[in-house]
Amino acid sequence: MSISSRFAVGIHILSLIAINKGGVNSSEFIAGSVNTNPVVIRKIMGMLKNAGLVKVRPGIAGAELAKDLSGITLLDVYKAVHVVQEQELFNVHDNPNPACPVGRNIQNTVVPLLLNAQLALEKNLEHVTIEDIIKDIANKEKISKE
Amino acid sequence: MSISSRFAVGIHILSLIAINKGGVNSSEFIAGSVNTNPVVIRKIMGMLKNAGLVKVRPGIAGAELAKDLSGITLLDVYKAVHVVQEQELFNVHDNPNPACPVGRNIQNTVVPLLLNAQLALEKNLEHVTIEDIIKDIANKEKISKE
DNA sequence: TTACCTGTAATCAGGATAATTACATCAAGA
DNA sequence: TCTTGATGTAATTATCCTGATTACAGGTAA
């Protein structure tokens, strides 16, 4: 099991739009940087648009950020691209045997614990913004030029 | 995307073995409580055995815990049943374009952040033991009898 | 020997992913 | 207005994982 790369691609897209501000961020241009098909980019871009992170219009080439860099967290992206259903990171078997003490209690016992773990993950993602990513990339570029 | 229910079933199995201590925990018995096929149980049991959490022997009915209840954490179970590959909860697209400043840095920038989030999840699981689960089940049973 | 268990390979349907083709729709310039 | 080139989306495909199931090899004890 692995969380879809849509998430990482979403981060890539937003970072690229931010860094290439002024340039024309068409789906083909972005696909070239991500190294995938433009349709894949447009699909993910649609999700980012629905989440209010990005402005795109049919027929007009290019995309812009709809929010300030520092106002977009990785959690925003994660939720936007629907890589994990709400409260469903962990799958729990259903229909355990109600005639068994373990069977009839396991769900109520385990589900809150797993939700808690999922929450810990998501809280962590909330503390990083696209601005942080951009700064890190700029930093790495600077270092490599030295 | 969803993390395989093997994890929840693994917890179920260990809890059942603990509570039914003294009884014969055959794969068929456990399957009856989980409500699945005995082969599914045996496969997961094999993983729990490889991880040193459980003792089972070919030909002999029943399984026992190989460790103390309080010494088995949810993280132990999670790792035992291989629901998430080491350091691969998040999938990152490969071969981004090295000719692009974002493309050539995105992996080195994003991977550590995602690993960090995965670690937050796993740390959380480490703080809960099978003993906690058993106590919670016992508690819920007691309440429901009142 | 018989009966019953564990271990495991093989198969199957169902669902998700990522890539791709095809096409409808829209906007702007010649 | 017509052409060009972009976005939006449906449909298809190969690949992979899951969970259930059948089948059978091998172990253990009465």
From TrEMBL, chains A, B:
Protein species of origin: Paludifilum halophilum
Q: What is the lineage of its organism?
A: Bacteria, Bacillati, Bacillota, Bacilli, Bacillales
Molecular function GO terms recorded: DNA-binding transcription factor activity
Signal peptide boundaries: none
Q: Which SUPFAM superfamilies match?
A: Winged helix' DNA-binding domain (SSF46785)
Pfam family for this entry, one: Rrf2
List, alphabetically, the GO terms of the cellular component aspect: cytosol
Q: Identify this protein by name.
A: Transcriptional regulator
